[in-house]
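Appendix B. Raw example, untouched.
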Amino acid sequence: MNSLNQKKATKAAYRNKIARFSGVSLIQRGGLPLRTPRSLLLPLAILTLFNCEAIFDIYPPKIEIIEPQEGVSYFGTLPVELLVTDNNEVVRVEVFLDAVSVHEFTREPYKTEINLGGISARILKVVAHDRAGNWSDASQHISPLASTYDTPGNALRVFAAGNFAYVLYVIVPADSGIQAITGLQIINTSDPANPSLVGSYDMLDGAHAVFVSGRYAYVAAGVSGGLQVINISNPANPTLVGSYKTGDYRTFAPVDVFISGNYAYVAANLGGFQIIDISNPANPVPTGSYIIPHNLASSVFIYGNYAYVAYWDAGLQIISISNPASPVPASSYDTGSATDVFVSGGYAYVANGYHDFQIINISNPADLTLLGSYNTPSYSRGVSVSGNYAYVVDGYDQVYNGLQIIDVSNPASPTLASQYETTGTAMEVCVSGGYAYVAAGSSGLLIFDISGLP
């Protein structure tokens, strides 16, 4: 076939392709379609010569996610960098975060930063479209964790201050006849992405709570240990300097402790609320107590001249401590089975077991009123408040375990802002310096960067 005939055949083939695409049957006559109006000849010729590649493109764009990287944690802002290619032309690239559209590109470079906001587990999804109408997508999981630290056994409690996290753990032997092993670990968190063990202190009995003040860690350490005072001025070598037994039976063992001034305020199960003078850490001395018969004191928080004590069966009790030798009840509010309490800005935030998480107005300690509540998924165990958010650890066995972040900017109407489900049972949360530290049972210590929360 000569060159002229070959060109004619090529053009005829293009015209027939266009006809099949548009549904028009073509019959070749003199090199032109029999049913093609003359007014369409020029547009048809342009499409034929210049755009056939787009019309018959059936291949979607290819997407490579350069950033974020798989397995890397990002906080505050999320860098996004994409490589998108196509055999024709990419016309639009959409970026989704947890199924919500957060950015759109219409041209290269495909590079930007996205505000993450909360800390919930996230999925980044990218959808690319080409001029022919083809599309493709790619996804990447974004970890909300700054880091994790694998404690021995189960992480039970955590207190964070300065560059350290103080974690209580328990190792439960398979043989029920062998006593559990408990202890305190001091973890350097100056670089939250790389926590490291500095020192530890072993205890013979249960470890229920830890509070750090100055050079000392105060541990609610069960029946035999009672309240233990541990010198942590050298974090690599913590040493016991003093102790006080709150009772001779497990039901009178200390389960929570709060330090204010020269006193340790202790929730001691059936032993109620106890005040211990720690002005001499080597020789703690009992000062006063308040007991509600047949009720278990589970948590305590000091705010001003009042102690806010959570009771399993008596709800929230407000106790005047103006005279530490003679604490007296000021008022109470029946929340249900109160497990933990945190006080901030005229409100008491109560973790309430299987009952709703509650916010109580304490501006007048003699007249408490419920402002708002939020129904957590399972069993709320602990609460810490910072800014406009309450951080609630919630979980029981395999029902649900995790961290709930609740927006309390409007105390009358708390709403869920974010959440993260943990593998182990989330036992306690402590917020310090833009991070939330969670003692998460078998998952150890989890550290979340919350600085991105508005």
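End of appendix B.
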